[in-house]
Amino acid sequence: MSIDVSQFHSIFFEESFEGLDTMESGLLSMSEGETDADTINTIFRAAHSIKGGAGTFGFSNISEFTHGLETLLDQIRNGERDTTNEAVEVMLSAVDTLREMMSAVQDAADIDEEKVAHVSSELTRLLQSDEEAAEAQTISDETSSNETTLATEHQQAGWKIDFKPLPHLLQTGNEPSRMFNELAELGKLDVELDDAALPHFSDLDPEACYLSWQLRLETDASIEAVQEVFEWVEDDCELSISPLVDEQHQDTTQLEKPFQDTDASPSTAPIAEQAVSTQSPESTAPKVDSVKKKPSTPSTEMASIRVGTEKVDSLVNLVGELVITQSMLGQIGENFDIKMLPQLIDGLEQLERNTRELQENIMRIRMLPISFVFNRFPRLVHDMTSKLGKKVNLVLSGEQTELDKTVMEKIGDPLVHLVRNSLDHGLEIPEKRLAANKNEVGELHLTAYHQGGNIVIEISDDGAGLNEEKILQKAIEKGLVEADENLSPEKIHELIFLPGFSTADAVSDLSGRGVGMDVVRKNINSLGGNVEVISEPGVGSTFTIRLPLTLAIMDGQIIQVAEQRFIIPLISIIESVEIEPKKVKRVTGKGELYNIRDEYVPLIRLTNVFNLDGGVETLEDGLLVIVEAEDRKVGLFVDELLSQQQVVIKSLETNFRKVTGVAGATILGDGTVAMILDISGLLTMHREPAKQLNSSVIKVA
Q1: Which of 41, 421, 523, 530 is catalytic?
Q2: If 0-12 CB within 10 Å is exposed, 13-18 middle and 19+ buried, where does residue 363 land?
Q3: Ranges for the Histidine kinase domain (predicted)?
């Protein structure tokens, strides 16, 4: 009975992309002439796993391309070749090419054969280099394995192999016959099948493996060559390999050792994992010149989430509690009597408690470490510093800080903009740094941590800081500010977020088009967050991003406006005050302003914004809710404040269309629908009254 291996394609691609990220991180940590054994073994194993998996699933072009890369890595790990910067760069190019090839196969698109051929030729050129071959030395006698020595002493004729797959091996896409064919290429192979564990037909699981094999391989190949055949399945089988000696030496003690103990790096885990793992796989710490910390290997494809077993167990326990509560309430409902009211109340309280815990645990499943985003930056910094002729230490911290998967997917591009900005505009070239009495190697820090209900991400550098004079001059040239305006340093720093602003003297592939920083702010604001910058000339700059942990659930303040109820995100509220009419100023063309602690904030009447009738008209009869967005404060005039509660956000755009001033909707406890206000949108409507025309459609009966 054949198995449809296509069902495992998605797992193969996911694990292969993880393997490529592991390889990239390891290669970035390698320096000229220095190779850490654990690092090179990790990289080699990832390449070998990708080659084996590609061969298993019939992706021969990927398997053949990876073979050249694997051969080069094998020579380095065996000490036959020194690590050079040229070799590292070629291998990084090979990783990029593999990533593109797998993406093309996954999307059923055409592979760039010209690029594949070019990188393959570079790998071949390195492998055939006479200079490096002359410098290479074979593995010394001291490092020869005991297995090889013992086999040689006893006139080894080959190897005896006991191979017993675990029941799930076939479900990983591996097929024993492929491994046997590969063994047969090493010499004469005799195969003996053991089917003693095969169950009765009625108990047979068609996707489980019940067979085991005893193999006799007559060959002069080393034990390492035999082990390599089984590397792809090392955690999915029981394996022992012992010398096959001439008949006169049959009484010699056999060398028998579990396969996983023979690897040079026992701590190195294969790419293949169970569908539910307790931790993301650890990769070797990436560095560009030097990188501190060890971020977890990110998954390139975010279509699935790896969930720790403890989270799954917690959900299972909570579902069990809910079933018990439902059963109890069901019995009460069947024979309800007023005397059972206390029991009913207890049951409802228990149901509420379990539901709240279930909600919290479900949200925890969506939380992922920000290392999934951070781990793209070592390569970015490596490539940019090579182009710019700069030296940079990338320091990562707080990589295990968790945030919602949806937020993470949308924060990647803004972070790339900010990192590129620091590398291009902030950090100086070595000559300028030395002239300024600085270390020629600049420091770029990416830090993440939780603060209240938010996640804070900081991108800081010890570069030249923002050139305030140049920024102001460029803003005046572009007509963004008046020439006679007297701006504080903080206001000048804010100019970099204006559309079309750039201080680059020439447009390049790195900067100068003025489409970066304003996009950063817009994207971050769309996530309900904000970004601010602090800079000191000659010392450096720090960009700070604050984001909500999740976009699915938020804390909100329910307000009453006429006959409607709205939700204001609690994170946007600064305070609420009773209005004193004498503090209200009316400015022609500007509307109403309210003076609060010597600061005038615009006053927005929500009844006018949403075309509502019957609301409070007299200011002293209502309340003013001071909110902040885009670093601007505004006062929302409401009839009254109701309760605060967590609300589940439903997209209005998905179910209807985008409405200015409305971020989404939610269903309240009584079943009615309430709109969630978008403070940034309200500011836009206040500045551009014409945008209010589309808001009348949001009235809810």
Answers
A1: 421
A2: middle
A3: 337-551
Same-domain check for residues 116 and 153: no
Question: Mean pLDDT, to the nearest integer, of 1-8?
Answer: 60
CA dist 77 and 19 (Å) reads: 18
Secondary structure class of 355 (helix, strand, coil) = helix
Q: Do 119 and 176 share a domain, yes or no?
A: no
Active site residue 200: no
CA distance 365 to 75: 42
Do 379 and 476 belong to one domain? yes
> What is the enclosing helix (H) or strand (E) of 628?
strand 623-629
Q: Which amino acid is at 264?
A: A
The CATH number that applies at residue 388 is 3.30.565.10
Given a contact cutoff of 8 angstroms between Cβ atoms, the answer to whether 528 and 574 are in contact is: no
15, 48, 234, 493: which is the annotated catalytic residue? 48
pTM: 0.56
Identify the active-site residue in 14, 18, 24, 70.
70
Q: Is residue 349 part of a domain?
A: yes
The total number of structural domains in the chain stands at: 5
Q: Is 440 among the catalytic positions?
A: no
For the chain, what is the total number of helices (H) and then of strands (E)? 21, 23
655 is catalytic: no
Q: Where are the alpha helices (DSSP H) in 161-248?
A: 176-184, 223-229
Give per-residue pLDDT as tens, 495-523: 888 776 765 554 455 554 444 687 788 88
pLDDT at residue 24, as a whole number = 87
Question: Are both 610 and 495 inside the same structural domain?
Answer: no
Do 190 and 228 lie in one domain? The reply is yes
